[in-house]
Amino acid sequence: MANHWMKDRLKTVPLFRELSDYELESLVSISHVRVYKPRTFVFMQGDPLERVYFIHSGTVKIYKTDLSGKEQIVSILQTGEMFPHAGFFLKGTYPAHAEVVEEATLIAIPIHDFEQVLMASPELCMKLFRVMGEKIVDLQNRLEAQVLHNTYEQIVLLLLRLTRTNAVKQGKWYRLTTHVTNRELANMIGTARETVSRTLSQLKRKGLINVDEHGFYLIDQEALEKEIFF
After folding, report:
1. What is the 3-state secondary structure (H, E, C) of 34-61?
2. Where does the record place the Cyclic nucleotide-binding domain (predicted)?
3. Whole-prediction pTM value?
């Protein structure tokens, strides 16, 4: 029964969805489910790199801090995603903090054991490479945004990125699936909270974004893209 329960949870992770029952068995024996309350840490920047995590439910914020304590948000991850993406086949430490935003149920797998499964499963290895490739493209796009675009355009591009990674479609709007503060948005692109607040006010006046009754951002993706690409 426990094996069946774990197998069902592994199947919710896109990376594992197409694996056979036999292939899933090799993961069941090394997987552990852990539940984290909001504002608790899964790991902290600099901790020994020991496990890879898959989100069964909930939201996890990945961010780095410098010596002065300044925060740089790398990503806000939700159901089906894995973290960290760095560290496979390497020894070292976690490159960032992982803090739970909304209560999360995570599947934890020791990295050494996961590497053994990868080496025995070419299909799973190729799927992981595709995920890594998507992350590299995302990082390249973020770097390009910082180099080629002003702050207003960077904020627009950030909102468009969030519609792809953290939103569901509702009519003409994309509704963000997690609460994001103006400070957190600012920390994603390295600008001031006040700058983000002014830009969001401009976008609201133009009818490009809105906020629903629960405080979630609504984004008109098609109209917002015209701010940058037309």
Report:
1. EEECCCCEEECCCCECCEEEEEEEEEEE
2. 15-135
3. 0.79
* Torsion, CA 230, CA 158, CA 107, CA 7, rounded to 10: -10
Tokens found for residue 110: 């020791």
Contact 26, 84 (CB under 8 A): no
Q: Looking at the domain covering 149-229, what would its CATH class be?
A: mainly alpha
Q: In this structure, what are the phi and psi dihedrals at residue 165, rounded to the nearest 5 degrees?
A: -110, -25
Give the integer Cα–Cα distance in Å for 116 and 151: 44
Q: Name the DSSP class of 93.
A: B
Cα-based torsion angle of the residue sequence 81, 61, 147, 199 in order, rounded to the nearest 10 degrees = 120
**Domain range list for the chain:** 2-134, 149-229
Q: Does an H or E element contain 200, and which?
A: helix 193-205
Q: Is CATH 2.60.120.620 the right assignment for the domain spanning 2-134?
A: no
Compute the CA torsion angle 110, 112, 117, 122 (nearest 10 deg). 120
pLDDT per residue of the chain (230 residues) written in tens, 0 to 9: 457 778 888 888 888 877 777 778 888 889 999 999 999 999 999 999 999 999 999 999 999 988 887 888 888 999 989 899 776 666 789 989 999 999 999 999 999 898 888 888 887 888 878 877 777 777 777 777 776 778 999 999 999 999 988 899 998 899 999 888 999 999 998 889 999 999 999 999 999 999 998 889 999 999 988 887 65
